Amino acid sequence: MKRENQNINLMTDFAFKRFFSTEPYKNNLIHFLNAVLPPYIGPVQDLTYLPTEQLGTSDTSKRLVFDVLCANPINDHIIVEMQKASQEFFKDRVIAYSSRHISESLEVGDRKYSFPKVITIVLVDFEIPELKGSDI
């Protein structure tokens, strides 16, 4: 029995996370990042996946769950988020996610504030009004 070609919609949460955030498919993420990031951080040779869930520092802090969170060998941290449906305050959410990751990376006693470079890539299937007409 001949098998028909099968397609997967990467704009679904399940497919996106499976295709980009699992170890067996790590090369997919590396190829994608190398299509986007070399002008900013150079080519990505390897990645380490980091835990995608960040709990808040208190009971009232919001829990964050990233689609993809990883680091390259020089400890640049890369967040990749995919959003299919438009959300009010989406830009603010992206800023909050990036900022939380930066602040959570500070270690006790570190007086230099030597946190990693954090790069956030957001793939959306809608227009963000605040960015309309920009080069971003």
Spatial order of strands in the largest sheet: 1-4-5-6
The secondary structure category is alpha+beta
Rounded average pLDDT: 85
Helix and strand run: HHHEEEEEHE
- Span between N and C termini? 48 Å
Largest sheet: 4 strands, mixed
What overall form do the CA principal axes indicate? globular
* Radius of gyration, whole Å: 17 Å
Q: In percent terms, what proportion of residues is strand?
A: 15-25%
Number of E-state strands: 6
Compact description:
With 136 residues, the protein is α+β, with helices and mostly antiparallel strands. The chain has one domain. It has helices spanning 13-20, 26-36, 38-41, 90-104, and strands spanning 48-49, 53-54, 64-65, 68-71, 77-83, 118-124.
Structure write-up:
The chain is α+β, with helices and mostly antiparallel strands. It has one domain. A hairpin with a 5-residue loop joins strand 4 and strand 5. The chain is 28% helix and 18% strand. It is globular. The protein has helices spanning 13-20, 26-36, 38-41, 90-104; strands at residues 48-49, 53-54, 64-65, 68-71, 77-83, 118-124. Strands 1-4-5-6 form a four-stranded mixed β-sheet. The model has no long low-confidence stretch (mean pLDDT 85).
